[in-house]
Amino acid sequence: MDEFIPPAKPLIGDEEREAVDRVMRSGMIAQGPEVLAFETEFARHFGLGRACVAVNSGTSGLHLGLLSAGIKPGDEVIVPSFTFAATANSVALAGATPIFADIDRESFCLDPASVEASITDRTTAIMPVHLYGHPADMPALQTIADRHGLQVLEDAAQAHGASLGGTPVGAFGSFGMFSLYPTKNMTSGEGGMVSVASGEIERLMRLYRNQGMQRQYENEVVGFNSRMTDIHAAIGRVQLTKVNAWTAKRQNNAAFFNAHLEGVTPPPVAEEAVHVYHQYTVRVTDDRDGLAAALKNEYNIGTGMFYPIPNHRLAPFQAEVDLPRTELAALECLSLPVHPSVTRDQMERIVTAVNNLAKAGA
Ligand SMILES: *Cc1c(COP(=O)(O)O)cnc(C)c1O
């Protein structure tokens, strides 16, 4: 059989290894100058026009972001159910209640109408996810937020470099969190980067990250240890120099799929949106699980299902809500390998396999 095509593959080169070695040799490995430089470079690289704060994971970034934005116990935060559990987990960790709204059929991101229908007098924020690297409908969500006096917060974990109407994701909300986990569009090993809309949110993020201290042993609030190490920051700084080329490769691979796939529904891109294809997710209306199994067993092609169980049905949440488009997406979604390591030959293999199988199934 042809060699296995993995659904994701982190890219670590000599430059990253040398950067780690440089930090190790310096003898200073905890949060320090590399983290500070990474924060500045990240904000500049993605044109965020605001400050960034680095933390030890994307989930920490959401949690600290929520706390710093003033989300309090008893608050309700509207989130999609069709996302990774970290979105709702972070809301719950902040003591607030995640309220699950439905998604848009095309973009897989929060549906503004469903969001508005979910608002109560306890709602304080809306936290869309730019799922798969496609921006959520930020102008519509901002309009609703303004009408009801709510904050908009961004889970941009999967969307480094995505934009809408020329504005990069992460520059819309009170904060925007980018994950730096190895399978994301760029990595620091583990890590998260949070862009912040105000000096006050930035100040609180930095306090919560470091046990509530700005000055050593003068603790101002109850905080965490959510610091990023200089080792991780050094990896992230190198990855920043490569991420544009990787994104372009993802977009080229996606364009190839769009042009050649048959029998499945390719992911549409909204007007004025730049999609960075963290995942290339098609809809399979007839036996998605069968197609995934056949791709694996007959063609040695790995795929992903993000996400097979909507969050509102997970054990910690169990919310009684009716989210038909979320349920359908959970049944139909299938992510094909689109990452920068997939070669042209492999792209052709994937297209041939999907088209053969989808035709046989039709
Ligand atoms: C990966 C991810 C997170 C969490 O990021 P970590 O760095 O893994 O903690 C949050 N939300 C979404 C949508 C993600 O994909």
How would you sum up this structure, described in words?
With 362 residues, this protein is an alpha/beta fold. The chain has two domains: 14-240, Type I PLP-dependent aspartate aminotransferase-like (Major domain) (Aspartate Aminotransferase, domain 2, 3-Layer(aba) Sandwich); 243-360, Aspartate Aminotransferase, domain 1. 39% of the residues lie in helices and 13% in strands. It contains twelve helices and 13 strands. The strands form four sheets. The protein has a four-stranded mixed sheet with strand order 1-10-9-6. Helix 4 (86-93) links the parallel strand 2 and strand 3 (97-101). 51% of the residues are buried. The mean pLDDT is 97. The structure holds pyridoxal-5'-phosphate. Pyridoxal-5'-phosphate binds at residues 57-59, 83-84, 86-87, 129, 155, 157-158, 179, 181, 192.
CATH level 4 superfamily of the largest domain: Type I PLP-dependent aspartate aminotransferase-like (Major domain)
Distinct helical segment count: 12
- The helix-and-strand class reads alpha/beta
Helix content: 25-40%
List low-pLDDT spans: none
β-sheet strand percentage:
5-15%
What is the chain-wise order of helices and strands? HHEHEHEHEHEEEEEEHHHEEHHEH
Active site: 184
Keywords: Aminotransferase, Pyridoxal phosphate, Transferase
Enzyme class: transferase
Organism: Nocardioides dokdonensis FR1436
